[in-house]
Amino acid sequence: MIIVMEESATEIQIRRVAEKLTELGFEVHQSKGERHTVIGAIGTRQTDSQEFELLDGVGQVLRITAPFKLVSRDFNPEGTRIKVADVEIGGDAVVIMAGPCAVESQEQVETIAGHVARCGARVLRGGAFKPRTSPYSFQGLGVEGLKILRRAADRNNLLVVSEVMDSSQIPAFLRYVDILQVGARNMQNFCLLKDLGRIRKPVLLKRGPSATYEETLLSAEYILSGGNRQVILCERGIRTFETYTRNTLDISAIPVFKKLSHLPVVADPSHGTGRRDKVVPMARAALAAGADGIIIEVHHSPETALCDGTQSLFPDQFEQMMQQLRLIAKAINRRIALNRGLQTDSEECGCGSRRAS
Amino acid sequence: MIIVMEESATEIQIRRVAEKLTELGFEVHQSKGERHTVIGAIGTRQTDSQEFELLDGVGQVLRITAPFKLVSRDFNPEGTRIKVADVEIGGDAVVIMAGPCAVESQEQVETIAGHVARCGARVLRGGAFKPRTSPYSFQGLGVEGLKILRRAADRNNLLVVSEVMDSSQIPAFLRYVDILQVGARNMQNFCLLKDLGRIRKPVLLKRGPSATYEETLLSAEYILSGGNRQVILCERGIRTFETYTRNTLDISAIPVFKKLSHLPVVADPSHGTGRRDKVVPMARAALAAGADGIIIEVHHSPETALCDGTQSLFPDQFEQMMQQLRLIAKAINRRIALNRGLQTDSEECGCGSRRAS
Amino acid sequence: MIIVMEESATEIQIRRVAEKLTELGFEVHQSKGERHTVIGAIGTRQTDSQEFELLDGVGQVLRITAPFKLVSRDFNPEGTRIKVADVEIGGDAVVIMAGPCAVESQEQVETIAGHVARCGARVLRGGAFKPRTSPYSFQGLGVEGLKILRRAADRNNLLVVSEVMDSSQIPAFLRYVDILQVGARNMQNFCLLKDLGRIRKPVLLKRGPSATYEETLLSAEYILSGGNRQVILCERGIRTFETYTRNTLDISAIPVFKKLSHLPVVADPSHGTGRRDKVVPMARAALAAGADGIIIEVHHSPETALCDGTQSLFPDQFEQMMQQLRLIAKAINRRIALNRGLQTDSEECGCGSRRAS
Amino acid sequence: MIIVMEESATEIQIRRVAEKLTELGFEVHQSKGERHTVIGAIGTRQTDSQEFELLDGVGQVLRITAPFKLVSRDFNPEGTRIKVADVEIGGDAVVIMAGPCAVESQEQVETIAGHVARCGARVLRGGAFKPRTSPYSFQGLGVEGLKILRRAADRNNLLVVSEVMDSSQIPAFLRYVDILQVGARNMQNFCLLKDLGRIRKPVLLKRGPSATYEETLLSAEYILSGGNRQVILCERGIRTFETYTRNTLDISAIPVFKKLSHLPVVADPSHGTGRRDKVVPMARAALAAGADGIIIEVHHSPETALCDGTQSLFPDQFEQMMQQLRLIAKAINRRIALNRGLQTDSEECGCGSRRAS
Predict the structure, then answer these.
(1) Residues C88-126: tens digit of each pLDDT
(2) Rounded distance, CA A116 to CA A124, Å?
(3) What's the pLDDT score for residue A303?
(4) Pair C312, C302: CB distance under 8 Å
(5) What whole-number distance in Å separates Cα of residue D228 and Cα of residue A290?
(6) Strand-strand pairing, C231-235 and C265-267
(7) Of D269, D195, B124, D315, nearest to C191 (Cα)?
(8) What's the gap in Å between the CA of D38 and the closest CA on chain B?
(9) Helix (H, G, I), strand (E, B) or coil at A54
């Protein structure tokens, strides 16, 4: 930490800062410029730089080390690979997660799950507990929705990812779900994060709509510092002045998170754009920028979907996208994870994945 | 609701939209322009306009009525006044809420509470459960902090407002606290909002850092629709590109909320700016713009505060601010609520409120 | 300037940075922390810190001194007062600038100028050259508009402020206008700024919709460094995610600019909100926060205005606002500048409301 | 245009709106809902919807047709292809534009031009007139810089694109430059736009840092409506709350502009991120999302560059990027434009990789 005193700082003020640093166990170096005295604090103790900003006479405080530790790339330079059953997230293969915005019925989920599995998805996504801006919107099927997801996933060799909204729901999620998702609006629900630090299942943490990279990583740090090392970061769009797209999918978050952290990074072009015709180009872009996975909404009949139909792909769009993603993955020396465990015995499957590859 | 079909919309697509509206109980009017067919839906049924945006051939959907009901100004044109003991929020008198950022000790809180009460504050603020960006920062004293606040408030004829972070904490808050605060980062924690809809104590709801006016009002609607009509809206700064101030206090939110809703509106210039020397001018501005209350951080020794010391006023700054606020209130035909119940028997009190008025 | 080397920086990289600093005339201090080497550069030479950020091995660069000089408060701690005829901007009296958005006709401007002058305005505002988002919108009357403003101002003892859009227009402005306004969209039109640095009339510089405080001050620095010391800063709202108001008027910019710079600061609540019913509360707020002036749109018949009628005050709203502003000014030990030179036949009528209606 | 009257609108107010529409040549349809009267205006006359928003009794105004015409995709559904010499922008082949941030010397530009041409760039970029935030930063070589670019481009079969900052510079640009660039900060410098509408050379228009899609297209409309149909849109990053990257490159702007407009779209990942190690992933992403071109900074020695060295690629990084871009282009059925006219002494070496490494 480096502290630049104000030009008008008195000797007493300078001394107080130095003493406080010494008390905290730092080695202190002081140097006088033409206008400002600069104090360098050497040591590894984690401290809040804000504590110093408010001391009298202090001008600026420069934090030298990142405020996060366990999520830092340094902590695991090779990168974290999260394995669940036969799926690995964060490895060479890019994992596609797909499914409806909201779980509506067993039949709906089965139809979509079968389709996306045949096209190469490895994880089934779907909301059972739905965070809705309005109390008058459909709030989800709850635990029943989780059961529906589980059954549909099992029949199609898929994992399940679904959003947990409150700590009280965790036990049900541990029973039915493989990856617990924290929604963007809960990214700084620290009570929830702490409770997810105590479980031993992967957590997919969505970046909040106005969260900086650093804040996102600190939220992940909450989970890791609780003992749960399996966190997947998810860029899902930030709020900007532009309203044509629902959010602005910040593609650069992908290479940034990959550099700063060892955690896998996925992107959500469905919520990130909110417009069906922008989902495929943005999925391609996310992959080209280095994402470890794409999480995407698909609905066999988006026009009757109970939520977010406007941003769900039609099944054939999803299929075509998968073909494009395979080619782009190859161009950057990666590949799309395959669903090898899937039993298919028909040539005419809704998705010509085998033919395409 | 008005639906503008795309130029290329087919007769079948137009018919489908009309039928869906009729099914939902709307009266349907159709008119053909030179390029676009426009469908008007007449009726009062609450519906999600997004459901229509995704139908084939639909270009734009215009919602005519606001998406919120119970919080709407129409619902209570006179404006809501929330009374707790001898304090009224939303009436002619402007209510000052003050106290430390975080509860640190009984002694600390007592000192500050005594001071702000003598200066005219009616509510004691202080964090017992602290939402902190980093897991390594001070997380608050918890229930013990609530007890400290209660004791200090009772001795100084103050109410207590404090932030509840999770539904599991509600019972403790009901016991020790008068007004439950929802923090900005929890503004869309819908599980918490629903649970707060079931209690019968006032809730001070902070606007999220990237929440629109409408989203903020819809979060309040969650609480009101649960049966709890006592909600106070709080503008505390939004996240913008400017980083010199911690947030950008959106003063215009005050007249906007007052127009759209009947709920009382307070402003938080401490978190809204994050800089001590900007707090007083912004408190004055908020009052001049029509705020029903100001919530402000004061610390008798901000330099040793465990959190947010940089934005806490010194006691004498608070005292001077109160004198300015009294004059500005008068200029706009309001007044600052007085703490009449306070037993003071000394002339030399830290704050010369009686002399000032 | 302080340079923190990366943990992995080599001795050679460290030496290169030190040498470059020495070449530039800085005295160099080096200190080794447990992980990072820190290099302090002492000296007053103005340098671009970015030049160092890109050297190999450099982690962070901390600029110690502000990047602006002539606009800095240090440069003129007393604050700059700009005098034109009998009007002083930046002194104790707050100056009100008012008039139509666009100049439409001599009659229109005369009517409004007379009204606002009687109410206490000292400067007549009005657009002759109009920057319009669409090429199909009314683009202004041009030089003819400037002449109209001049005549109306002279008859009412007002100064004229109007927006100059291009350097080629400067000669006409020097002839007819007292204060040249740079619009928000031209705040970083550096060619224009340089040319305005060469004139000797005051410039009112509007903050760009996404300009930081620092960038705004650097744009002012362009003008001052050209030799023109008469710059007035104007906060007119920034672009945020909130679209209910046209812009978000950043009231905190007022105390921030007043602290960082010696230049006078005015606020524009008309463009800052874009909504007539928010203009008056925001004008009050700006004044309460310390503005040296308010620039505001008034139209005797906003419903027929050729531009921005939605945000123009009606004459009687302006009059009532002036009365409120006088009281608030008094509350913070200031006053509203009076138009003493104005010939009024009645002493008791600060504002000729009866005659106006 | 559809006008929704307020619930409280009187018969007279409704009639006034209808009359005004009729006067303007619209056919008027009126329908009464349970609460609101809705007025539909049928006709093709271009009108400013804001004119109606301010009429008494008007609640909302819904514009049905886009505010731009000539730039609209409808106007040229096939898409515009801009041809200069043997380069086509907007066709199947993706055009790479590369070069230094600022022109520093003939030697510097020659070195870079030769390298990027051998790697497949078709356009040489470089700033001769530099818009700099601070008046104390390097302001460019001016016309001399344009000449340097021209000579280096001619020797390497490249076109030249460079930023024009002011109308007075246009004649020099017409002489030396093939594509005139409008910088982000000048995107709403309407005088400049109008003057560029009168020339007959292509204009590369950068989106402003806080410009919406619609505003960007309206700025392009200024140029087209002046008669110059050769406009290339450029996404170069918007300003958001995130400061880790210099701007947030809004990749979704690419498919949005391609859908709304017929104009070619390029992306600038150098300014869009401001960080060298993010440029390549974002260039890949932009291409994958459908960009017609990439404009990128390359410097043979970024560490000594006079501006923006931190975001310039090293020559070998550029070369590797080009190889990745070729593969990604193929994956989406496009290709990178080749520099066939370039005299190279080896057929098998599109890019001087052996020499560079």
Answers:
(1) 999 999 999 999 999 999 999 999 999 999 999 999 999
(2) 8
(3) 66
(4) yes
(5) 39
(6) parallel
(7) D195
(8) 9
(9) coil
How far, in Å, CA of C64 to CA of C46, rounded?
A: 11
- Of the candidates C210, C220, C295, C294, the one whose C-alpha atom is nearest the C-alpha of residue C257 is C220
**Sequence-ordered alpha helix ranges (H) in A156-266:** 170-176, 190-197, 213-225, 253-260
Q: Which among A56, A221, A239 has CB closest to B303?
A: A56
Kind and range of the H or E element at C324? helix C315-331
pTM, entire model: 0.92
Q: How much is the pLDDT for D196?
A: 98
Q: What subunits touch chain D, counting only 3 or more CB pairs under 8 A?
A: A, B, C
| pLDDT one-digit tens code per residue, C116-151 | 999 999 999 999 999 999 898 888 999 999 999 999
**DSSP three-state, residue B99:** strand
D185 falls in which pLDDT band (50, 70, 90)?
A: very high
Position D303 confidence tier, pLDDT thresholds 50, 70, 90 = low
**What are the DSSP calls for B216-248, one per residue?**
HHHHHHHHHHTT---EEEEE--B--S--SSSSB
Token code pair at residue C30: 């080096």
Rg (CA), chain D: 24
Q: Is the pLDDT of residue D200 over 90?
A: yes
| Distance separating alpha carbons of residues C313 and C351, to the nearest angstrom | 15
Give the integer Cα–Cα distance in Å for C343 and C155: 10
C280: pLDDT strictly greater than 70: yes
Alpha-carbon dihedral of residues B240, B242, B244, B245, nearest 10 degrees? -30
The whole-angstrom separation of Cα C73 and Cα C85 is 25
Cα A38 to chain centroid distance, Å, stands at 39
Structure tokens at C204: 């009112």
Cα nearest neighbour of C310 on chain D: D54
Positive or negative: CA dihedral D330, D333, D334, D338: positive
Residue C185: CB atoms within 10 Å: 23
Q: Is some CB atom of chain B closer than 8 A to the CB atom of A134?
A: yes
- What separation in angstroms does the CA of C284 have from each of A275, B167, B286, C352? 41, 40, 9, 21
Burial class (CB in 10 A: 0-12, 13-18, 19+), A194: middle
Q: Do the Cβ atoms of A202 and A231 come closer than 8 Å?
A: yes
Q: What is the pLDDT of residues A29-44, one digit of tens each?
A: 888 877 788 888 877 6
Longest dimension (CA), chain A: 83
Compute the distance between CA of residue A344 and CA of residue A120 in angstroms, rounded to an integer: 12
> Under the phi-then-psi rule, with left for phi > 0, alpha for psi from -120 to 50, and beta for the rest, what region is B35?
alpha
User: How many other C-beta atoms lie within 10 A of the C-beta of residue C81?
Assistant: 15
Question: In angstroms, rounded to a whole number, what is the distance separating the alpha carbons of residues B267 and B277?
Answer: 17
Q: Extract the residue ranges of chain A whose pLDDT is less than 70.
A: 44-46, 48, 50, 303-304, 308, 342-357
pLDDT (mean) for D21-27:
86
Optimal mutation site among C239, C242, C265, interface B, most CBs of chain B within 10 A:
C242
Tens digit of pLDDT for each residue in D320-354?
A: 999 999 999 999 999 999 887 765 543 333 444 33
Please state, in angstroms and rounded to a whole number, the distance separating the CA atoms of residues A14 and B48.
Answer: 61
At B41 the pLDDT is 83
Type of residue at B293: G
Using a CB-CB distance cutoff of 8 angstroms, which residues of chain B are in contact with residue D29? Answer: 31
**Contact between residue C323 and residue C111 where contact means Cβ atoms under 8 Å apart:** no
The separation between CA B262 and the C-alpha centre of its own chain, rounded to angstroms, equals 13
The reply to whether residue B288 touches residue C285, judged by beta carbons under 8 angstroms, is yes
Pairing of strands A231-235, A203-206: parallel
- Cβ neighbours for A332, distance < 8 A, ≥ 6 positions apart: A287, A288, A290, D284, D324, D327, D328
